[in-house]
């Protein structure tokens, strides 16, 4: 194994990903996952209002169903950590996602749409995150010396799909209607399983061999605590919830206060997705060099500057600069944060992965609540002070945790479940 790690460090990360069957397939799978999500999300509020006759306040409450995401992430992740191969549960989630979007498309009552998003689509989202756990399992079996770069490069597939989806969704909505757009989202969700047909990755578990006996050995065999992971996710939620405020009120600010033309508003809003494509590979390199946890701390501070920039901007150029800072923060949280979460709970990589991406959905719900309350108190653009303050709190908390984690002993490495010969199936 050491020879493999030394060799891959000298090669480009993209070449490493393209040579690996799993990494290559995972990137394609994540493209369809991002495509399916972004095809539907911009159309959901319009669907609720136009097709299900929901009032605007009720449509705004829809995304509060994401507050249940951590519970589903915990259950799905814990289930996967008892399986030999997580990808079987990932495939089940893709099928469930198709059924959920189709059921949503043919719903006739608002409460039914809420229930579907709360349960069926919540499960599908949690199961989809298991692909990152499978990638981490492979990195344990075949070390590369570039874990963060590999994870970030694979994650680019999702970003590319997420950028493409809104345009496709708008076209489908205009041509075929909103219900067929949701069906298309379900098809894309199912297609994320297609590249991984026949792929297996043995689950990695902590290696207990050679651990000392006595009191230290007994402590090592105790069940690991979820507290570091939950603390990290809570602090990340504080940093991430500002994105809901940005999407809700930045277009309003540009329209009402700056008089920004339609095309330029679109450029400012979409600049974050483009920026993430640029920053995610860079953050992977920096994380492998300086440490992922440290990088998350520093880049959450960029979120402070970004939100203060949104609040102080009096022209579109300043908004673009602030959006670039926000893109850098999100590139770190979206592309590198997952590896920090997995490192904090190595005994449950599936649970760490599912909980992390469930936390992103949870943050969207919290952001909706903060936006509704904050705009009434501070107005626009004053409402951006709220995510700026939350990013400060998150950065301080993450810094303290990083220091404490650095002083703690490293977790034990992982080994595959089952026979060693099964490692051949992941290559």
From TrEMBL:
Q: Which residue ranges does UniProt annotate as crossing the membrane?
A: 26-48, 54-77, 89-108, 114-135, 156-176, 226-249, 269-287, 294-313, 319-341, 353-378, 384-404
Q: GO cellular-component terms in the record?
A: plasma membrane
Q: What is its main location?
A: membrane
**InterPro entries in the record, alphabetically?**
MFS (IPR011701), MFS_dom (IPR020846), MFS_trans_sf (IPR036259)
Reading the lineage from the top rank, the first entry is Bacteria
What membrane topology does the UniProt entry give? Multi-pass membrane protein
Q: Where in the cell is it found?
A: Cell membrane
Q: Which Pfam families match?
A: MFS_1
Key word Lyase present in the record?
Answer: no
**Is Membrane among this UniProt entry's keywords?**
yes
Q: Where is the Major facilitator superfamily (MFS) profile domain?
A: 22-406
Q: Which GO terms describe its molecular function?
A: transmembrane transporter activity
Q: Which PROSITE patterns match?
A: MFS
Q: Which UniProt keywords apply?
A: Cell membrane, Membrane, Sugar transport, Transmembrane, Transmembrane helix, Transport
The family assignment reads: Belongs to the major facilitator superfamily. Set transporter family.
What's the protein name?
Major facilitator superfamily (MFS) profile domain-containing protein
Organism, by scientific name, is uncultured Friedmanniella sp
Organism lineage: Bacteria, Bacillati, Actinomycetota, Actinomycetes, Propionibacteriales
